[in-house]
Amino acid sequence: MIAKILIIDDEEHMCWALERAMRQEGYQAISTTRGARGLELIKEHAPTLVILDLKMPEMDGLEVLKKVRELSPRLPVVMLTAHGSIETAIEAMKLGASDYLTKPFDLDELKLVIKQNLQVSQLASEVDFLRSELQKKYSQLIGQSPAMQEVIKLIDRVAQSNATVLITGESGTGKEVAAVTIHQHSPRRDGPFVPVNCAAIPDNLLESELFGHEKGAFTGALHRKPGRFELAHNGTLFLDEIAEMPLNMQAKLLRVLQEKAFERVGGTETLKVDVRVIAATNRNLKDTMEKGQFREDLYYRLNVIQINMPALRDRKEDIPLLANHFLHKFAPSGKISRISPAAMQLLTRYHWPGNIRELQNVIERAVIICQGQEITPADLPKELLVTSEQATRQNLITIPDGGISLEELEKELIIKALEKSGGNQTRAAQLLGITRSALLYRSQKHGISLS
Fold first, then answer.
1. How high is the pLDDT of residue 137?
2. Whose CA is closest to 16, among 7, 5, 25?
3. N or C: which end of the chain has fewer CB within 10 A?
């Protein structure tokens, strides 16, 4: 997008000259000789940067600057001031001006200042965009179940500390979402959140990925590369699937956690970092310790605070909330407005081995397939229907605390099958999953009349 420069200067020839210079640089440019009109132009045109003269009649540059900050707190403003008014220029910087130049100024210097300020503004916009995308990607922790309310309360308390956190739970339960939530509610929220999937990086590359490397450290190391720990300085490093980290790397990670320092691969300089570490795993780390696959000292270093993410089957009351959340995520236009009661019943009966990730995929698929305004059972995968039927059959018979007579149960089932089939013996046998001759034998045994 072409940058739009607004020039506010009481000298008409200065406005003309600067407009011409800005257009030669490829920018759009508009100008005015009055501060009040400049504020109106900001509202009308939403400029990318303002060049503002400090000394103007009616409303001077400082007054205009204050109003600009109220209208657009992030809008870059470059002040122009006469020689000898440095104190006033410094005051303008305190009020939020991005930069200042003294008149007479070199035009090339002004162009450079504008370019630098536009770059800084663009980077700030990109950071804001990436933060919003991070929130969209990971969404938020959703759940009214007792299990999830406990998790949310614990995260609220943990987020304000700087303690290392270990998040456990099955795949798809939202461990990374929990890590992002901790980061976003912590004092480090303005710092970077850097995720690393320890299982996805080959063992021989993991050290370089975490700690970086120097040029020439190994074949193919053509340039110095910062590692994830450096990138996460003043922020949070999320080590997912920590149980998959090889033992030699576990020892190096332990040292960083203890000393807050490390060296790049092939380097001798010790680098200090301020990083909060959050680790996650879907494995039982105590079992891996007993098998000699995970260091005991690292486990206790990571497990300062443990958060266990419950499986979706253990928080079924949250399924409608999550399903509707994903529906609005994948069908934001409102074309598909709801999930039918029958479809929601299937969703709540399913056991969800893939947890929240599987539910999200099912809703996304249903939104794509759905032809109407609501998601119905026909829009759901067949395995949900089959599992629901199995669950229904399993719930048909319950065994009371006092026990049950198998003989009486068999007799009752035969009577019900005959009633349902209207006395048709062949159909009754089919309902019970036995042959007609077996039905005749068992009916005779229980004294059931088939006439």
1. 47
2. 7
3. C
pTM of full prediction above 0.85: no
Rounded-to-integer distance, Cα 29 and Cα 9, Å: 13
Token pair recorded at residue 269: 């300089």
**HEC-encoded secondary structure of the chain:** CCCEEEEECCCHHHHHHHHHHHHHCCCEEEEECCHHHHHHHHHHHCCCEEEEECCCCCCCHHHHHHHHHHHCCCCCEEEEEECCCHHHHHHHHHCCCCEEEEECCCHHHHHHHHHHHHHHHHHHHHHHHHHHHHHHHHCCCCCCCHHHHHHHHHHHHHHCCCCCEEEECCCCCCHHHHHHHHHHCCCCCCCCEEEEECCCCCHHHHHHHHHEECCCCCCCCCCCEECHHHHCCCCEEEEECHHHCCHHHHHHHHHHHHHCEEECECCCCEEECCCEEEEEECCCHHHHHHCCCCCHHHHHHHCCEEEECCCHHHCHHHHHHHHHHHHHHHCCCCCCCEECHHHHHHHHHCCCCCHHHHHHHHHHHHHHHCCCCEECHHHCCHHHHHHHHHHHHHCCCCCCCCCCCHHHHHHHHHHHHHHHCCCCHHHHHHHHCCCHHHHHHHHHHCCCCCC
Q: What single letter denotes the amino acid at residue 3? A: A
Q: Can you give the pLDDT at residue 357? A: 93
Position 354: which residue type? G
Between the alpha carbon of residue 193 and those of residues 158, 181, 235, the distances in Å are 16, 11, 6
Give the pLDDT confidence of 188-214 residue by residue, as tens digits: 988 999 999 999 998 888 999 999 988
How many other C-beta atoms lie within 10 A of the C-beta of residue 425?
16
Query: Which positions ≥6 away from 228 have C-beta within 8 Å?
Result: 194, 196, 209, 210, 237
Q: Rounded CA gap, 269 and 266, in Å?
A: 10
Residue 79 has pLDDT above 70, yes or no: yes
- Smallest CA-to-CA distance from 3 within 78, 115, 80, 107 is with 115
**Burial, 191: exposed, middle or buried (Cβ in 10 Å; 0-12, 13-18, 19+)?**
middle
